[in-house]
Every structure is written in C-alpha cells, then in structure tokens.
C-alpha cells in the first residue's frame, strides 16, 4: 500500500513538472534578436523580413511563420531560428 501511494505521488509530481516546463517555454517574451553568419544583408533588414520583434510572445507558430517569410524572400539558402533561455 505504501508503494502504491508513493508511486501515485511520484507520478503526480512528474506530471506537474512536465506541465510547468511546457508552459514555461511557451510563455516567454522575446527580449532580443541576434543575427549570426550574415555576410550580405544588414541585420536589421533580416530581422524586419522575419516579422519577429522584441516584445513578441514566443511560440512555435510565430517561429514557423518567420522561417517561411525569410525563405520566401529567396535571399537565404539556410535559415535557423534558435530559442535561448537566459536566466
């Protein structure tokens, strides 16, 4: 019986932390944008083409739309958007 109760609480705590991590990543506000590896186009122009700006809420949908916008310009052969948490 003790094992059953212990397992129940352990699973409940794990589920709680997984839900917390998921909401933590999806509720961040984009503070800064950084362009790396650019040789031909001004960084501000690339950020403008992306459609993302500081203060936007981070989400997978926002990033997907941004990648599509950048590839639609046909100026880039490789585009990566990475999300970095700064604590």
SSE arrangement:
Blueprint: H1 2-26, H2 43-50, H3 60-72
Shape: elongated
Strand content: under 5%
Element pattern in H and E: HHH
Helix content: 40-55%
Uncertain segments are none
- What profile does the largest beta sheet have? none
Mean pLDDT: 78
Number of helices: 3
Strand tally, please? Answer: 0
What structural class do you assign from the helix and strand content? mainly alpha
Gyration radius from CA atoms, angstroms: 19 Å
What's the end-to-end separation, in Å?
Answer: 42 Å
Notable traits:
87 residues, mainly alpha, 53% helix
Can you give me a brief rundown of this structure?
The protein has 87 residues and is an all-alpha fold. The protein has helices at residues 2-26, 43-50, 60-72.
Note down, in words, how this protein is organized.
By secondary structure, the chain is mostly helical. Helix content is 53%, strand content 0%. It has three helices and no strands. The protein starts with a helix and ends in a 15-residue tail after the last helix.
